[in-house]
Amino acid sequence: MLPTPLPLLALWLASTSSPVFAAATAGSFADAGSTLVSAMMMFLGNEEKVYIMDKAEGNPTQVKGHPAWGSVWDIKTHEAVPMDIKTNVFCASGMHLPNGSYATFGGNGAVGRGGAVGSQKTEWGSGIWDSEYQDFDGTKAIRVVNPCTSSDNFDAPTCQWFDDPSTLAMQKSRWYSTAEPLADGSMVLIGGFVNGGYINRNTPNIDPEFEGGAAENTYEFYPANGREAKPLQFLIKTSGLNAYAHSFLLPSGKMLVQANLSTMIWDYDSNVETPLPDMPNNVVRVYPASGAVAMLPLTPANNYNPTVLFCGGSDMNDYAWGNYSFPMIDTFNYPASRDCQRLTPEPADGSAAAYEADDDMLEGRTMSQFIMLPDGKMLVVNGGLNGTAGYSTATGETFSYGDMPWGMSLAAGPIGRPAIYDPNAPKGKRWSNAGLGTSNIARLYHSTAILLPDASVFIAGSNPNVDVNFTTIFPTEYRAEIFYPPYFAATTRPAPSGIPKTLSYGGDSFDITLPASSYSGSANAAAGNTTVSIVRSGFTTHALNMGQRYLQLNNTFTVNSDGTIVLHVAQAPNPFVFQPGPALFFVTVNGIPSIGKMVIVGNGQLGKQPQAAASVLPANVLLDSAKGTADGASVNGGQQNNQDNSPNGAKSNTGPIVGGVIGAIAVIGLLGALLGIFLARRRRAANRQMPTTSSSSYVMTAGGQGAAAGFTGAGARGVRSSDSSAFVPLQHDNHSQAWNASTASLTGPYRDDAAAASRGSGMVSMDYDPYASTPRVPVQNRY
Ligand SMILES: [Cu+2]
């Protein structure tokens, strides 16, 4: 029998007795342990911890006597521990709060095994609680957590999720809603389904506003502060393809919103919509087309005027998209889009906003996502060549689950190789995957990725299944990986000192010192090629990083005779350009980022942020004779020309290990080719059994043009015989009208007034306040 590649690599790595994560080779993927639950949603809590959420499902890992659907993963040890989440956080939205806490919004009703409605039901039949999985209804939940570190007691309630919809809840049920932060640290929650479904509409679509109670085409604020949920016409116009709408706060204080093929600028205060042009080429970018969408870096050079990049997704026709039940075509045979468009919603010259065709991606991608890297480039990672997000037991063309070629997955052709987009490269040269390795783990529906403080990228999840399934072709995935971008070729990382722990909006500049050992060669050149940036990695789910944003701070510099470079750095411009809350602070020299430090931007409070005049910076002071003392061998690693990037050129202080890994990868490549032939034969043979290991059950692709061909044949069949699905026909009554608003105050102490009041009556333990437990805003000091 053919051995599977993964054990071979594991065996080889074991024989070197090196920790797996010691081999931080530029362009490579490395094992990062287990997430314990499938990483459907994640965020970086602080410099130590990544918080992970899954839907309520039958994960073997238990917490408090039931399957876990939350965990926290440690960046140093690569180990996760389960965390208890009470409600079903299935496909929620999430966002940071100004003090560095995080909140998640909505989810699904309580479910039990196989996605069945929970054992305790409402009168209209949705799940309140399930006796086996012990999850509560999460449709209106607002869950808050204060990120803790290893020095905290994680078992203390102050480090655990606050999750009690009876005291803190949205006004409406929202599944697949969007959360976009506002300049005062509050946020707007947009749309969503009331219950489940593939897309948010019925056939025929005669009731686009309500869909008989299944669509929640409204928005609300958190904290609500007296503001009631209101209908959003844009969601009605984009009916069906309007979940997880793409939204970006703009410098004007208005918001770009994109869904289906429509685009608008929204004044959310007065609920006035200004239409912008439709998305060209019929490409849908929202779930379940799930294009990669992100705002390009905001820089002094572009005067902090945002441009949003939309890449990939699907140009399936309107009929093909189907309805709540499933798509009308076999999506897994339909190639995803390669199309990229740029949009500057508010052009500086006052001209009309217009989409501008950008370079096509190197391959079509669905469910790929952008990760903003500290060097100002954008990594696209995860996803598939064909199909869409979502899972189902049938389509309009394949009626029975037994005939579904990829189990419940509506996508196929997992892409293992990332690509990097350089927004500053000339048109025609913006995409490259040269030097980037290929993962052997499929990251399809419900996979995630997020930037870590060391500027690597944490990648996890994938579970196109209604419940845990280890035997289908695209199984429930717990294996995490770390991807090391090209700048990991550098032998020396900049080591800045004096980074403040908080940033203000305008006001006095601050100085950061870069020692001569941070760079090599001319100090003048290094200083001139240094950027200071804050990167908000966001809340990742469904190929989105909600709230992700990259801001380059304005700076000047003084070069000293001993080679130290003093950077004079401006504060953030204003809270519309970069909303209050946490971010990673990087200093990038010659394309090599420092290790990111977590900072809080703004005053850490909800409410109007203090603003001062823009920082005034001293003029540059250069000194021709000054030089850096770092080993210059590979300081240019992150600056490599895209076209010349080569994995073998990657230098590392773990040289022998690198050679070995590349050798092992070559062997894997050969095995992969053999495996491809093997699988092709196996697919031709009917009635063959599923392999027992997932790594041998699908073929990863490195992408590339035309790679979508070849995924049209019937693949292996899943072994589940159950016909249960999240996408069963819905009860079309809107039961989400009951008032249960957050009454959190925007002034004074940041807490939910109703929750605070109820604590006195014993509804919630007095010893736990989800907001005020730990001071998230440190006293003004420096790293
Ligand atoms: Cu989902």
UniProtKB/TrEMBL annotation:
Keywords: Membrane, Signal, Transmembrane, Transmembrane helix. CDD domains: E_set_GO_C. The chain crosses the membrane at residues 657-680. Residues 631-652 are annotated as: Disordered. It holds the Pfam family GO-like_E_set. It comes from the Eukaryota. Residues 1-22 form the signal peptide. Residues 636-652 have a biased composition (Polar residues). The keyword Transmembrane applies. Residues 493-600 form the Galactose oxidase-like Early set domain. The keyword Lipid metabolism does not apply. SUPFAM superfamilies: E set domains, Galactose oxidase, central domain. Residues 212-487 form the Glyoxal oxidase N-terminal domain. This is Aldehyde oxidase GLOX. It comes from Hypsizygus marmoreus.
